[in-house]
Amino acid sequence: MRNRLSGFLAMLLVTVFVLSVMPAIKAQPPLPAMWITPTTLNFDTGTTAVGALFNVTLYAGTASDVYAYNWYVLFDTSQLAAITGGYTGPGRSQWFSSHSTSASGPYVDNTAGEVYGGESLLGSDIVHASSGSIAWLEFQIIADPTPGNTLTSTIDPNSPDSYFLDFDLFHIPNVSFGLAAYTYSGGVTPPPRHEVVVSSVTPASDHVTQGNPLSIEVVALNNGTVTETFNVNATYDGTLIGTQTVTSLAAGNTQTLTFSWNTTSVAAGNYTITATATPVTGQTDLSNISKNAEVQVLLPRHEVVVSSVTPASDHVTQGNPLSIEVVALNNGTVTETFNVNATYDGTLIGTQTVTSLAAGNTQTLTFSWNTTSVAAGNYTITATATPVTGQTDLSNISKNAEVQVLPPGPSQNPYDFDGNGKIDITDVAVVAKAFGSSQSNPQGRWNPKADVYGPNGVPDGTVDLFDIAIVAKNFG
């Protein structure tokens, strides 16, 4: 007797335990009815993301004979979207699966928030009191709750358009409905994340001449979730270039800072430029607080040159002035001030000063050669840049040009090319031979002597009809 009692108590305890851990199952509504399973749909952002899909099943049943039914399932379009659906039997509902039927739908209307359909028997058939599944429906989560809040809505077949018809096509009265309750909970508000970083460091160039400043652009980013104020340091090989403060930078925003590196006392060589954001209180991730860039500091190169010397003509009549154009170039890396001399066969024509010529720039100088006391003959015009302090390359400090000084002829006529005292066919032939050529397009025939006249009454660098006409006009 004692053993039987112990066994009974043990079975009772097991039964109580099993009942305590079994989930509660909600019974179907009283028939006639349409209802959704599962009856509760609970999601949270910790395990389910927006865009997730889930299915529900629509059931129906009657306590009397039924011939046809229509169904509408309503949902909240601000939280859910209906994706698709289908009947639970082969081309028809599982409820009517043993009968010949005509089934329509399911149809999806995400504007009105409806999924609907219907099914009817054919001929004189009838379905007696029973129940079964009608359709499955797929939904998508489209709205995200804010942290700490919960979105709630229903998936509900309770609609005036949900009904049953008997064999005589009369509405079966007193239909009840069972809905599915949907919830989507946001997680607990996460703690603030403090993270300031340097996203980039960009020098204006990868090299700089010693003594010149170099601009360095640094982009600071607040990669956390709260507004921050912090410092950013720029260094070269650990030596401070400067510090700037980023004030009240909102989460997710950037600020661009510009540092100027003074290289006056920096030795020539390769350097690492580092921009570092000072970590803020509460920051634990320090992996991105700094970024680097490489820059080479070059020794200054001093080199001034004459790039060209161009007399206005390759001949001049004794006593007339000759204009000489000289182009000076600073071919070094620092701004320079220097002199340029012009000479003929070593005799000084003049000296001019080029002041504060920036690296890579040119300046054009014009000298006037007074030939009054210069004997007739051939001369070399030389323009020379005086080397600056520190200049070692002297290979291009001067350029030459050849000029002929002609004796004054009896006629003193500028069109008397051969100096025989008259304008004759020989002088016309000089121009005719060079006709159509120019200083920029010599064509193998260019002769600066033949360029004697232009539209403005002075040589224009082209031998054309003006030159022939003026010589012809003085013929004889």
Keywords:
five-stranded mixed beta sheet; 3 helices; Immunoglobulin-like; 8% helix; mainly beta; 476 residues
Can you give me a brief rundown of this structure?
With about 475 residues, this protein is mainly β. The protein has helices at about 1-20, 425-435, 465-475, and strands spanning about 35, 40-45, 55-60, 70-75, 80-85, 100-110, 115-120, 130-140, 150-155, 165, 175-180, 180-185, 195-205, 205-210, 215-220, 230-235, 240-250, 255-260, 270-275, 290-300, 305-310, 315, 320-330, 335-345, 345-355, 360-370, 375-385, 400-405. The chain folds into 4 domains: about 35-185, Immunoglobulin-like; about 195-300, Immunoglobulins (Immunoglobulin-like, Sandwich), CATH 2.60.40.10; about 305-405, Immunoglobulins (Immunoglobulin-like), CATH 2.60.40.10; about 425-475, Type 1 dockerin domain, CATH 1.10.1330.
Coarse shape: elongated
Number of strands: 28
Number of domains: 4
Helix content: under 10%
CATH class of the largest domain: Mainly Beta
How many helices? The count is 3
Question: Which strand order spans the largest sheet, edge to edge or round the barrel?
Answer: 5-8-3-1-11
Q: Biggest sheet, in brief?
A: 5 strands, mixed
Q: Strand fraction band? A: over 45%
- Rg measurement, Å: 50 Å
Q: Which structural class should the secondary elements be placed in?
A: mainly beta
Structural description of this entry:
The chain is mostly beta strands. It folds into 4 domains: 153 residues, Immunoglobulin-like, CATH 2.60.40.680; 103 residues, Immunoglobulins (Immunoglobulin-like, Sandwich); 103 residues, Immunoglobulins (Immunoglobulin-like, Sandwich); 49 residues, Type 1 dockerin domain (Orthogonal Bundle). 8% of the residues lie in helices and 46% in strands. The strands form 7 sheets. Strands 5-8-3-1-11 form a 5-stranded mixed beta sheet, with no helix packed on it. Helix 2 runs antiparallel to helix 3. The longest helix has 20 residues.
